[in-house]
Write a structure and sequence with these properties.
By secondary structure, the protein is α+β, with helices and mostly antiparallel strands. The chain has helices at 4-29, 34-50, 57-60; strands at residues 77-82, 88-93, 99-103. Strands 1-2-3 form a 3-stranded antiparallel sheet, with no helix packed on it. It is globular and about 60 Å long.
Length: 108
C-alpha cells in the first residue's frame, strides 16, 4: 500500500519525465515540422500546470513568455550580447518581438 504523499511524489516524477521527453522531441522536430514541435511544447506546459511541476530552466529559456512558442536560435529568435550598463544576453522572439534578458556576472 502506497501512501498519498508517496503517490504524489511518483506522479510528479512521471510528469517531470514526460516534460523532458516532450521538450527533447520538440527540439528534434522543430526543423522538419514546426507545428508538431509547437504542439509538444503546449502539451509539456499543460502537464506542468496540471501536476504543478516546473519546467526545468534549461528548457524554460527556449519558451517565449509572451506568445508561448518554442524559440530556437537562428530559426525564430535572435541572440545578442549587450555591453551597455550591465553586460547581458538578449534573446528576441521573432514571432512577437518579446525580449528576454539574462545578466552576465562579472568576475570580481
Amino acid at each position: 500500500m502506497v501512501s498519498k504523499k508517496e503517490e504524489k511524489k511518483i506522479i510528479k516524477q512521471i510528469a517531470q519525465e514526460r516534460i523532458e521527453i516532450l521538450m527533447n522531441k520538440a527540439f528534434e522536430t522543430i526543423h522538419k515540422e514546426p507545428d508538431l514541435a509547437q504542439r509538444y511544447v503546449e502539451i509539456a506546459r499543460k502537464i506542468g500546470m496540471r501536476y504543478r511541476v516546473r519546467i526545468p530552466k534549461k528548457w524554460k529559456i527556449f519558451i517565449c513568455r509572451k506568445c508561448k512558442r518554442l524559440m530556437v536560435p537562428g530559426l525564430n529568435c535572435r541572440v545578442r550580447i549587450q555591453r551597455k550598463r550591465e553586460p547581458h544576453v538578449t534573446i528576441t522572439c521573432l514571432m512577437c518581438n518579446h525580449t528576454k534578458r539574462f545578466l552576465i556576472k562579472r568576475k570580481q
